[in-house]
Amino acid sequence: MSSRQPTFLIVATVCALAASSAANGYARMPADPCKLLTSAQVAAALGTPVRAAESITSDNTACKWQTPKAPRQMVTLQVLPAGKVFTGRTQPGQPQTSVSGLGDEAFYRELGAWKGLFVKKGAIAFTLKIYGVKDLDKQAAIEKQLAVDVLAKL
Predict the structure, then answer these.
(1) Domain boundaries, the chain
(2) Which of 10-24, 48-62, 73-87 has the highest mean pLDDT?
(3) Residues with Cβ < 8 Å from 27, sequence gap 6 or more?
(4) Among 1.10.20, 3.40.50, 3.40.1000, 3.30.1330, what is the CATH number of 27-153?
(5) 89-117 pLDDT, tens per residue?
(6) What is the pTM of this model?
(7) Cβ-count burial of 91 within 10 angstroms (0-12 exposed, 13-18 middle, 19+ buried)?
C-alpha cells in the first residue's frame, strides 16, 4: 500500500459522510432567519408599517414582524430542517392545498382562522403565517409573496 492510499481513503470517507449528511436533511441552517425578510418587504406585503424583526424562539429558528398599532397584524417565519416539516405532513382536520412554483415543494395548511404556508427548498423548510388578516385568501397571497423573498435568500 502506498503512502497516498490512506490519505485518499480518509478524504473519500469524509466526502461521503458530508454528502450523506446533506442528503439526510442536515443542511446548514440560516444563522439568523430574521434576516431572510426585511421590515420593508413585510410592510409592503401587509400594506402597513411593521416593527423590526424579533426572534421568538430560544433556538433562534423563528421571527415575527408586528404592526405597531391596531389593528394588530403579525407575520411569523420559522426555518427548520425539511424533515421536521415535510415528513408525515398530513394532519387530521387541517386541510392542505399544494402550491406550485415555490421551492421544491410547498403547501398551505388551514387551521381555524389562519392558513399557513410551508415551503421546502433542498434540506431546508420554512413556514410563514399571517395573523390579524381575516380573509384566508389574502393571508395566502401575502405568504406567497413573502415566500418568494425568503427563497431568494436561501
Answers:
(1) 27-153
(2) 48-62
(3) 81, 82, 122, 123, 124
(4) 3.40.1000
(5) 666 667 889 999 999 999 999 888 889 99
(6) 0.79
(7) exposed
Residue in the block written with cell 395566502: 140
* CA distance readout (Å), 40 to 27, 35, 67, 79: 28, 12, 12, 20
pLDDT higher than 60, residue 25: no
Evaluate if residue 49 carries a pLDDT over 90.
yes
Q: If you average pLDDT over residues 60-66, what whole number do you get?
A: 96
Helix axes 136-153, 39-46, angle to 10 degrees: 160
Q: From CA 147, how far away is CA 152, in angstroms rounded? A: 9
Can you tell me which residue has the cell 436533511? 25
Pair type for strands 62-66 and 124-131: unpaired
| Helix, strand, coil percent content, the chain, rounded in steps of 5 | 35, 30, 35
Q: Which residues, 6+ apart, have CB-to-CB distance to 30 below 8 Å?
A: 36, 79, 124, 153, 154
Could you give the CA distance from residue 28 to residue 36 in angstroms, rounded to a whole number?
14
